[in-house]
Amino acid sequence: MNSAEMQRKILSAMGAKWAERPFVPSVTNYVTAGFVADCQLAAGCSAAMLNLPDEACEAAAMCSAFYVNLGTVVPVYEKTIPAVCEKLSELGKPWALDPVAAGLGETRTKLLLGLKKHKPSIIRGNASEIINLARLWELRDGDFSCGMVDSSNAAEDAVDSAVLLARYTGGAAAVSGSIDYVTDGIVTAASYGGSPLMGRGTGYGCALGGIAAFCLAFAEPFTAALCAVNAFNYAGKRAEKKCAGTGSFRSAFIDELFCMTAEKIAHNPFEIAECQ
Amino acid sequence: MNSAEMQRKILSAMGAKWAERPFVPSVTNYVTAGFVADCQLAAGCSAAMLNLPDEACEAAAMCSAFYVNLGTVVPVYEKTIPAVCEKLSELGKPWALDPVAAGLGETRTKLLLGLKKHKPSIIRGNASEIINLARLWELRDGDFSCGMVDSSNAAEDAVDSAVLLARYTGGAAAVSGSIDYVTDGIVTAASYGGSPLMGRGTGYGCALGGIAAFCLAFAEPFTAALCAVNAFNYAGKRAEKKCAGTGSFRSAFIDELFCMTAEKIAHNPFEIAECQ
Amino acid sequence: MNSAEMQRKILSAMGAKWAERPFVPSVTNYVTAGFVADCQLAAGCSAAMLNLPDEACEAAAMCSAFYVNLGTVVPVYEKTIPAVCEKLSELGKPWALDPVAAGLGETRTKLLLGLKKHKPSIIRGNASEIINLARLWELRDGDFSCGMVDSSNAAEDAVDSAVLLARYTGGAAAVSGSIDYVTDGIVTAASYGGSPLMGRGTGYGCALGGIAAFCLAFAEPFTAALCAVNAFNYAGKRAEKKCAGTGSFRSAFIDELFCMTAEKIAHNPFEIAECQ
After folding, report:
1. Residues in chain B whose Cβ is within 8 Å of chain A
2. Which of B32, B75, B247 is nearest residue A34 as measured by Cβ atoms?
3. Which of C31, C203, C251 has the CB atom closest to B251's CB atom?
4. I need a labelling partner for A11 at 20 to 30 A (CA). Which of A167, A259, B21, B96 fits?
5. Which residues contact C80 (CB under 8 A, 6 or more apart)?
6. Chain A residues within 8 A of C47 when measuring between CB atoms
């Protein structure tokens, strides 16, 4: 696998599809739910954010792919998240997990432990979250540090944990940072671009997970995760040139997602190397 | 009733009022609550979003009109929504209902069934939601299909269901689509304008319901619903010309609502015909 | 204390700090959580919004300062808010309280009563909220009126209540209005600027509380509260000149926060007078 082959794979998977409207519901957090939905809708998704076990499971039965984000754990999620992930497993539906703040609090830790057996198709997090999840799932040694929303590690430090997660799930894992890494446990892609402004506004990581779930409607996990990461890096780099700060950046970023094409995704700079 | 008469009615109802600050609280969803509040405040509302039965009922006692939106059903809403709608009925206060995703899940279905007896002044939904609600309330035959946030029907297909809902409640019903329909069961208005971009961002339907509730502070249900729909069609059409995608569209749309006048509302293109 | 001394104090406290990333988590409302986080991140905070008692208390142990906002009281907050405020007291960590809609509903009233003993470092509210809280805590006479999100009092009318609150807590209190007042019970600052558009969009008060909490990471309560208020007045005044309504105002406002400096904060117009 090299970059040119990967570009052809992206173009083939996403070609006519970016403008379709697959149903990709979420169980997500209330801080960034509106922005996640806006990004998904801009890209061409039919989105719905759900809380209760009954309707989340019904939506899982109807969906093309699903998104689970642990940003704000509310009490009903102790029922909803295990129930919907069990349902997705049963049905063999692809889904993306964002283990936000992995390591923070007993409830969140218990929830994340319970998801190990359901093997999400894509895991997307910052470096701390990816490292903490790999430790929590006992894929690597080391205590996990107290979970933070903002990562205290560089993305590079988490690549080995991402590889372990991907090998365990048989899917893909993505680490966000100034360079983004995506791996299926066999090869790892480094994707370039984006903007430091994405760390100075809320929800870009959450929305990336939502777009990764959207891409799972068209492509296998590694391609889907790389498409999402490339799209965000392309959109972030372009939006930065059109803004006067993080307020106007957000509008410009959504505009770029709305105008996204398979060609832009395929040609955002990235490199591929085999995992060791 | 013809369009010219309706325009005079709109100008008379909304003339000096669009800039007043009636208190119009909501029980709504967390995905779009911020956007609903922004639209209501831009139009001149005093808004508040409430969760608990005690404070929702207190707010109902103080309000000019109320808005109930079922976007994200959370556990406490099984108590709050029946309690606040009972209170609104008792007090004879006008209120608007957005039956988001009607048909999805047992809890939502049970909640919507329980609202039948409270006869909302305005019901606002997409075609699927309006058809599903009319079936759920046994106003028309046919199984209801599984509720989706994005409609799988054209607005035209839901006009007969809207008429049945309006005849049952004695209020008005509005169906959103590329053409919007508003009916009181006697006449139906078709309102033109808007933008396809409103379907590619989250919350335009929710916010339309919130503005319909705001207009209930000044006008009877049919006029209020048509004012809200005309305002959104005017704002959407104008905002589309000023944007580069769905991000900048949202800002431009709120700007247009902030600059709305009774004249703009009255003169947005619409037609009126008697129901059969 | 005069304005020139205060300006030096602001420059000294905020000089190099505005660009640091202290961890300032919140228990806040879902309507404006995204905007609060955006403002905090734009200013340089590491933000996290929490619901459950376990993780809110863990975050309190790690934080530089904390923010508690009662905008949307959800059931779990009856446990979370007392627990986290108890923890903050124990640890001696600074925190800001926004008593949104103080006076509305039994649950909210009981929650606010329970916070009296924990003495928040900064209390930020509109005039009605500040007056109602002072009455609820029995610092002044008079029934409290039913709490509204939009104030039915002018900020001037609440200065005496703010002074009583600040004297009771030993911290600072800030009243938002067309002129903003900040007091530590000894001196009161009047801060000028801002924009009427801040009352026509949701969350500017909530976000001000979040930025006040951020400033508590660097400065004692009175300086922190005045820094936050001056920053908002500067940003609001500038953003108003660059916008076409409340939609584009919001983007421009966040851009201004992103470009904020200690100099701008220190030189926003304000006056200081001794309390009587």
Report:
1. 29-32, 34-35, 71-75, 101, 104-108, 146, 148-150, 199-203, 243-248, 250-251
2. B32
3. C251
4. A167
5. C27, C50, C51, C52, C53, C56
6. 149, 202
Phi then psi for residue A227, to 5 deg, are -60, -45
Closest CA to C258 of B104, A243, A162: A243
Q: Per residue of chain C (276 residues), what is the pLDDT tens digit?
A: 789 999 999 999 888 666 679 999 999 999 999 999 999 999 999 999 999 999 999 999 999 999 999 999 999 999 999 999 999 999 999 999 999 999 999 999 999 999 999 999 999 999 999 999 999 999 988 765 655 556 667 899 999 999 999 999 999 999 999 999 999 999 999 999 999 999 999 999 999 999 999 999 999 999 999 999 999 999 999 999 999 999 999 999 999 999 999 999 999 999 999 987
Q: Which residues contact B220 (CB under 8 A, 6 or more apart)?
A: none
Q: Which amino acid is at A233?
A: N
Collapsed DSSP state (helix, strand, coil) of residue C124: strand
φ, ψ at B175 (rounded to 5°): -110, 125
pLDDT in tens, A99-115: 999 999 999 999 999 99
Going by C-alpha positions, the residue among A252, A256, A231, A235 that lies closest to residue A243 is A252
- Dump strand ranges (E) for A129-186: 172-176, 180-183
Structure tokens at C176: 């938002």
Asked whether the beta carbons of C220 and C226 are under 8 A apart, the reply is: no
Beta bridge partners, A27, equal A68
Chains that touch A (3 or more CB pairs under 8 A): B, C
Confirm if B196 and B115 have CB atoms less than 8 A apart: no
- Using CB atoms, list chains with 3+ pairs below 8 Å to chain B: A, C
Residues of chain C whose beta carbon is less than 8 angstroms from a beta carbon of chain A are 21, 23, 30, 33-34, 37-38, 41-42, 44, 46-52, 54-55, 58-59, 62, 74-76, 250-259
Token pair 């893909």: residue? A172
pLDDT-flagged residues of chain B (< 70): 16-19, 143-152
Supply A48's token pair: 């719905």
Q: Give dist(CA B14, CA B262) in Å, integer.
A: 5
For B160-173, what is each residue's pLDDT tens digit?
A: 999 999 999 999 99
Helix (H) or strand (E) holding B123: strand B122-126
Determine the Cα–Cα distance for residues C262 and C7; give it in Å rounded to an integer.
9
d(CA B253, CA C90): 47
Which pLDDT does position A15 carry in this prediction?
80
Q: Choosing among C100, C104, C129, which should be mutated to test the B contact, i.e. which has the most B CBs within 10 A?
A: C104
Question: Which residue numbers in chain A have pLDDT < 70?
Answer: 16-19, 143-150, 152
CA B199/CA A42 separation, integer angstroms: 9
